[in-house]
């Protein structure tokens, strides 16, 4: 009786953290989406404190948007998808957070993206935004590839493209590499004439700082710039290989998510591009489904 | 009269900062080298506080080694070569340091390495250690190439090799890249069987953490591992191109300095390898010459 009542009144919040922003959506099974909020960067690999801050900002904005009181944060059952929590040490650290929610269920941003994209059914997703990675769930078995973080992994991501472009431009400006149209683009963007002027501004930048440069690579590739074409092609080839690897597990659907999903599409292997379907729901809805699944499983166990 | 007396008693300290260690040598013109000290990482691009701490540790050890009192730090004329101080913002920040020395003269680690290698005469140097870069002084004109920092530059350096190796191993372990002998080496080194286990341990590592892996790349290349050979060859090709660019300025000598100078030598363009001569003095002696030049110029101006 008690358990059933709790279930009826339940408030959920789905949180999708990323390298550049954090999205939160508040939801109840009776009323659907109640409100949404947008916070800053929430990739715990690049700063745990900043991530928790972004989660709280997006949560508070979602509460406000939903017309709920600040204290009602304690009523929320949070589902949370964050990059890097496949690393056990990071998962544990975040689970130790003295969070304000009623309960908190944590998984990777890949997992919640996949749950959202296929509305909780089997399927595979490739995320290509600031980072890149692939994930599938088929018959209860999940696998993931890539997602090893900037700069050692994340090939084909925005940050990877930006870094490759910077490397190529620094070589060109030093007279040690192929000429590229991106050099003039970056001289103008960074308002400097020298390699050192660019290097200085990029020194210590997080992956999101590099990801902002990806659009220059696509622009230059459209203009047939050889160096930019090589970067885009290499990135797209990796994403195609990642997709093929995921399709080996026979997922019924494949979706691509993130800021680079659309611009990369035309550079993919045509067989792969033909298999890509639109995600049914966004990752923050996947995070809500994840919380609902966990709460309902716990209630079943309790009864 | 006063100036001459000061000059006779002058104590110098030469400091050579690097990504993994900091060397200090105390010197007087009458007695030569009085003592040396070794401190931790001193690359201000990777942490200013740590750098200043390493400088002080190496200074204190050098004072002790020279049989000087702790307070005599105030008598030292310091010449200092640090990575990244070609970036004006970083140069200014370090010059604002409330240092304990009588005077402090700051320049790049490249500059002091070059002064040392050619005992103050014209010449060119390539540094390939944790980072990589090239520098020459010819007829009072200095130029430098590369040295743009990890991970956007420093091709052919230890950190670059380590990063390329990690990237290749993560691809191999995900079934998305060529098989490489380095995968087994890294599984054993990191004591893990998975890509994620390696990625977790490398997450957030500074360039020095990657540079430690360079020896595996050379070992695998010696065993004809294709992936390792491609990395070593690409790195050596860049260093050869860097050398050719420096030789365009007609320096009378060319030296290579740093932990990778020796292992890389056999992979260089043979014309370049034949031009490489041993450095006459280490970078910390170059830093001492740099301080002496500055002190004596100032005395000349004062008289």
TrEMBL record, chains A, B:
InterPro entries membership: ATPase_BadF (IPR002731), ATPase_NBD (IPR043129), Euk-type_GlcNAc_Kinase (IPR052519)
Residue stretches making up the ATPase BadF/BadG/BcrA/BcrD type domain: 13-280
Superkingdom in the source lineage: Bacteria
PANTHER family recorded: N-ACETYL-D-GLUCOSAMINE KINASE
Name of this protein: ATPase
